[in-house]
Amino acid sequence: MAIKKIYPKTKPGCKVTFSLPKEAVKDAKCVYLVGEFNDWHIHATPMKKSKDGSFKIELELKKGKSYQYRFLIDDHTWENDWKADRYVPSPYGACENSVVEV
Q1: Which residues fall within 8 angstroms of residue 5, CB to CB, at 6 or more apart?
Q2: What is the spatial distance between Cα 47 and Cα 40, in angstroms, rounded to a whole number?
Q3: Full-model pTM
Q4: How many whole angstroms separate alpha carbon 27 and alpha carbon 7?
Q5: Which residues contact 98 (CB under 8 A, 6 or more apart)?
Q6: pLDDT in tens, 13-54
Q7: How many C-beta neighbours within 10 Å does residue 59 have?
Q8: DSSP readout, 53-75?
Q9: Could you confirm whether domain 4-101 is CATH 2.60.40.10?
Q10: Helix, coil or strand: residue 83
């Protein structure tokens, strides 16, 4: 499932639903969405586990911007969004960050 984006006509922001499938999280107990929208604070944005084992969260983000982010699984494994709009090199090593364009 791609990143879901809803642009309400009455609000300046965009409702963005981020999700990580069960295949990516396996038997994870917790997943956090970490990125520029929360100043990379690792525990600021916990995701909710769905009945199917995936994790999801909806955020309202400012239109006309792009945001880098990653998922933190059980406080020790970093994962990119498999359906990100694009990827950019991370300034912290050989990995990449996911990017959502709003």
Answers
A1: 14, 15, 16, 17, 102
A2: 15
A3: 0.91
A4: 33
A5: 68, 69, 70, 80, 81, 84, 87
A6: 999 999 999 999 988 999 999 999 999 999 999 999 999 999
A7: 19
A8: S-EEEEEEEETT-EEEEEEEETT
A9: yes
A10: coil
The whole-number pLDDT of residue 34 equals 97
Judge contact between 91 and 40, C-beta under 8 A: no
What is the distance between the alpha carbons of residues 3 and 63, in angstroms, rounded to a whole number?
15
If one counts every other C-beta atom within 10 angstroms of the C-beta of residue 51, the result is: 5
DSSP 22: H
- Residues sharing a CB contact under 8 Å with residue 36, sequence separation 6 or more, in sequence order: 67, 68, 69
Q: Which residue do the tokens 């983000």 mark?
A: 61
Q: What is the pLDDT of residue 1?
A: 53
Here the tokens at position 92 are 């912290």
Query: Is residue 102 within 8 Å of 5, Cβ to Cβ?
Result: yes
